[in-house]
Amino acid sequence: MAKTSQHNTAPDGTILDHTPDTGPLAAELRVAVMRTSRRIRAEAATGELSPGRYSVLAGLMGAPRTVGELAAREQIAAPSMTRIVNDLVVAGFVSRGENPLDKRQVRISITSLGSAALLQARSMRTAWLAQRLAALTPAQQATLHEASMILQAMSAPEMGMQEVKA
Question: Biased composition, Polar residues: where in the chain (predicted)?
Answer without folding.
Answer: 1-11
